[in-house]
Specification:
This protein is of the alpha+beta class and about 300 residues long. The strands form two sheets. Strands 1, 2, 3, 4, 9, 10, 11 and 12 form an eight-stranded antiparallel beta sheet that branches.
Length: about 300
C-alpha cells in the first residue's frame, strides 16, 4: 500500500516502459539541482566561464568610470608652477563635478578648474596623446591632455570689488586678505601686476594663482572680453584633493581669511538695508500722527 507515496499517485517510481526515460532505477524527482521544468534531464547547469563573463565585467566597469567622470569626479594634471606651493607640477587632483549639477557656484578661496575663457592659453601648445591615452582620458582614468583647462584660486565672485595696489594686500570688498598661508613663499600679493579696483560681474569670478609672480591669471587678461573674469559656466568644478603622488596626498580646504566677517559685502549690507526699509514706514507714520495732533491743538 506504500507504493507511490513519494509521487502522490499509485504508480511505481521506475517506469522503463515509457520511451525516452533513461533514469536509472531508484532515482526520484527530487534528485539533482535543476530538472528543466520536469523534463527528466539530470544534467546540472554549469556556471559560465570566467573568460566569457570578463567582457561584461569590463564593459560595466567602463560605463561606471564614464559616469563617474561625467557627473561625479574627474582627474586633472597640474601642467605648470602657477599654483605652487599648494600644487606642484605633475600633481594629479580630483575635481568635484557633482555639486555644480545642483546649482552650486564657485566660492571665494576655492581652487577651481576651468576651461580657457578665450585667449588665456593662446600660445600654449596642445599635447598630442596616443590612442591609449585618449581612451583613458575619455573614461576619466587619466587627465585630458587635449583640453585647454586652467587651475587657479577664486579670489572674488560676482558682485565683489577686488583690488591690489603696489606693496599692498589683495582687498575684497574693503577687507584685506591674509594670503601668507597659501601664496608661494617670498612672493608679494601683486607687485608684478597691481590692479583694480575691479567690480566682478554677476555670474563670473576673479581668479589668481598662488605663485603670484609666475601666474598669468585674471590680472593679465583684463583687455579680453570679461575683463579678466571667468564665467561660472566655464568652471568644470572645485579641486578637492591631491590624489597623486601618494606622498603628496592632501585635501584643498578654503583658507580662513576668506571667511572673515564682513567680506561678503552683500550679506553685510542686507540686514541694515532691511532694517532701514522696515523702520521707514514707522517713522513716517509717527511724523504724520504728530503733525495731525499739532493741528488739532
Amino acid at each position: 500500500m506504500a507504493v507511490g507515496a513519494r509521487s502522490g499517485h499509485d504508480e511505481p517510481e521506475d517506469r522503463p516502459d515509457i520511451p525516452g526515460n533513461t533514469e536509472p532505477a531508484g532515482t526520484t524527482e527530487g534528485d539533482g539541482d535543476a530538472r528543466g521544468g520536469g523534463s527528466g534531464s539530470t544534467a546540472r547547469k554549469k556556471p559560465r566561464s570566467f573568460w566569457k563573463e570578463l567582457p561584461l565585467l569590463i564593459g560595466v566597469a567602463l560605463v561606471l568610470a564614464l559616469l563617474i567622470k561625467t557627473f561625479l569626479v574627474q582627474a586633472f594634471s597640474i601642467p605648470s608652477d602657477s599654483m605652487q606651493n599648494t600644487l606642484q607640477r605633475g600633481d594629479r587632483v580630483l575635481v568635484d563635478k557633482l555639486t555644480p549639477w545642483f546649482g552650486s557656484e564657485p566660492e571665494r578661496g576655492e581652487v577651481v578648474v576651468f576651461h580657457d575663457p578665450g585667449g588665456w592659453l593662446e600660445n600654449t601648445p596642445t599635447a598630442d596623446p596616443n590612442a591609449v591615452q585618449k581612451f583613458l582620458s575619455f573614461i576619466g582614468l587619466m587627465p585630458s591632455a587635449e583640453e585647454k583647462d586652467l587651475i587657479k584660486r577664486v579670489i572674488a565672485v560676482g558682485g565683489d570689488t577686488v583690488e591690489c595696489k603696489n606693496n599692498g594686500p589683495v582687498m575684497v570688498n574693503g577687507k584685506a586678505l591674509d594670503d601668507k598661508s597659501f601664496i608661494f613663499k617670498g612672493n608679494t600679493a601683486c607687485n608684478d601686476e597691481p590692479f583694480g579696483p575691479v567690480k566682478v560681474p554677476k555670474g563670473r569670478i576673479w581668479v589668481m594663482g598662488d605663485h603670484r609672480q609666475n601666474s598669468l591669471d585674471s590680472r593679465y587678461h583684463q583687455e579680453l572680453p570679461g575683463g579678466g573674469t571667468v564665467s561660472n559656466d566655464e568652471v568644470v568644478g572645485r579641486a578637492i584633493v591631491v590624489a597623486w603622488p601618494v606622498n603628496r596626498w592632501a585635501t584643498l580646504p578654503v583658507p580662513k581669511t576668506f571667511d572673515q566677517p564682513g567680506i561678503n559685502a552683500a550679506a553685510a549690507l542686507a540686514p541694515g538695508a532691511l532694517g532701514f526699509a522696515g523702520a521707514l514706514p514707522l517713522v513716517l507714520w509717527r511724523r504724520r500722527n504728530r503733525a495731525a495732533a499739532a493741528r488739532q491743538k
